Amino acid sequence: MSEEAPTNPEGGASVDGVKINWDDSSIVSTYANIATATATREEFFLLFGLHQNWKGMPQDGELDVTLTHRMVLNPHAAKRLAAVLARSIQVYEDRFGAIQT
User: Fold this and answer.
1) Separation of alpha carbons 94 and 77, rounded Å
2) Is-contact 32 50, C-beta < 8 A?
3) pLDDT (tens digit, 9 = 90+) per residue, 8-19?
4) Is the C-alpha dihedral spanning 37, 25, 31, 12 positive or negative?
């Protein structure tokens, strides 16, 4: 990866000398407060969903999570996403402070 796309896609990006124009006319926004990932040799699976811990911790020690979306990425796209997320988190923390996990 000789050039990386910026973390903010507004105004396009340049990757390996190719200008990327982002078309968000069909974009759908969804909220998730939990995410996990798994992988096979060929693909990475990102699972997104909602948990309802605002109801308080369950008495039985189990938390139900409703999975709502699955994104499937090839290993190259997954690694690029990881790099973009790492940079975006660093910019966020530089501006607003460390995120507690």
Assistant:
1) 26
2) yes
3) 555 566 677 889
4) positive
